[in-house]
Each structure stands twice: as structure tokens, then as C-alpha cells.
Amino acid sequence: MKDISSRLFAVLCICFALSACSANYAENVESERAKKDKEMLGEDSPIPSWEKENFVGLSYYPIDQTYRVVANIERIPVGQYFPVRMTDGSEEQYQKFGYAVFELLGKEHRLLLLKNPRERNQLFLAYTDLTNGKESYGGGRYLDLDYNNSGKIPIDFNRAYNPYCAYSAQYACPIPPAENHLNIPVPAGEKLFETES
After folding, report:
1. Do 127 and 150 fall into the same domain?
2. DSSP state letters, 159-177
3. Is residue 186 part of a domain?
């Protein structure tokens, strides 16, 4: 009886810890979103000044931990560069880092991870999915990912964000590689930017 009580107590402690972690996680994401809303009203904001008067905050999907995954990384030999097309027709050179391989909604996915030569420990993931052009920006969304050489990388689509060209046509933004299309809807992260003007 004592063993059963001890086990039950341990299970309850684990459940409590997980729920606390979940609450802290949601609070952190909400805090990041609130901070970005403030930045969107600043001088360096990509939102045109005439639209700031009606700005009430960016739109996001509800936080859903289903869209947090840990991917295995298939490395690519160092030195391979990838010309990323920009929305203005130009190109920028990124380094091919590897492929993130993960399971989401019962399917395996494989997305190309790029490295900006100017960033040391951060990888760039630009992707499209079936929400684009309907609920999210038609040109796709981005994630900046920290990498620590472990062979795995966490990908949190709740933190996906729009490129600057989603807010104003005066910006040139990287176009996600064709191979980075997820043939599923990913209702997580930032939604389509709409103004009230």
C-alpha cells in the first residue's frame, strides 16, 4: 500500500511539473508576442506609419504544443552554398547546413536548414504550408533556430513569424525553397497581417 501511495505521489508530482512547465511555456510565448507588438509601433517597424494609428496587435494562432517538435539533423558537407531568391528578384547566398527531419501530424517531414554566413550559432528555416494565402502570409513564414551541435534541433512553429514584406512591399525578403513546403496545414505562429484602415 505504501509503494502504491509513493508511486501515485510521484506521478502527481510529474503531472504537476509538466503542467507548470506548460504554463510557463505559454507565458513565455505570450510575452514574446506582446514585446513584438510594442516593437511594431517603434521607429524601426516595417509597418507603414499611416497604418500604425489603427494597429491593435499582430494576429496569432492559439498556442498549441502539438507544433513543437524535436528534429534530427542530416548534415550537409560544409561549403555548399544555396542562392536564395528574394521577393525583388535578387539573390542572397546562404550556406546549406542540413535537413531537419521530424514527424508532425503523423507524417515525416524534411526541411532544408540554411545558415546566414553573418550568424554564428543560428539557423534559418523558411517554409510554406497549406495555410499560406488563406490564414497566414502567402509568401511563407520563418523560424530562427539556435543550434548547439547535438545532432538534434527543437522546432517550435508557435514562434513562426512573417517576413517584413508581409507588412510592406518596400522590403525584399527570402522566398522559402520549393523543397520546404509542408503538405499539411500548420495553424501555429503568426497569421496574416491585416490592417483596420
Report:
1. yes
2. G-B--GGGT-TT---BPPP
3. no
Q: Does residue 29 sit in the same domain as residue 51?
A: no
pLDDT tens digits, one per residue of 70-98:
999 999 988 788 999 999 999 999 999 99
Q: How far apart are CA 181 and CA 19, in angstroms?
A: 33
* 152, part of any domain: yes
Confidence of residue 140 (pLDDT cuts 50, 70, 90): very high
- Tell me, yes or no, whether 131 and 51 share the same domain: yes
Q: How far is CA 61 from CA 4, 29, 132, 182, in A?
A: 41, 12, 13, 17
DSSP string, 125-152: EEEB-TTBTTTB-TT-EEEEEE--SSSE
Residues 6+ apart with CB under 8 A from 128: 139, 140, 141, 176, 180, 181, 182
Q: What is the pLDDT of residues 39-51, one digit of tens each?
A: 999 999 999 999 9
State the average pLDDT over residues 9-27.
57
Would you call 74 exposed, middle or buried from its count of C-beta atoms within 10 A (0-12, 13-18, 19+)? middle
Q: What is the dihedral of CA 2, 3, 7, 10, to 10 degrees?
A: 60
Count H helices and E strands in the chain, helices first: 2, 7
Which residue's entry shows cell 514527424?
Answer: 103
Domain of 128 in residue numbering reads as 45-180
C-alpha cell at 51: 497604418
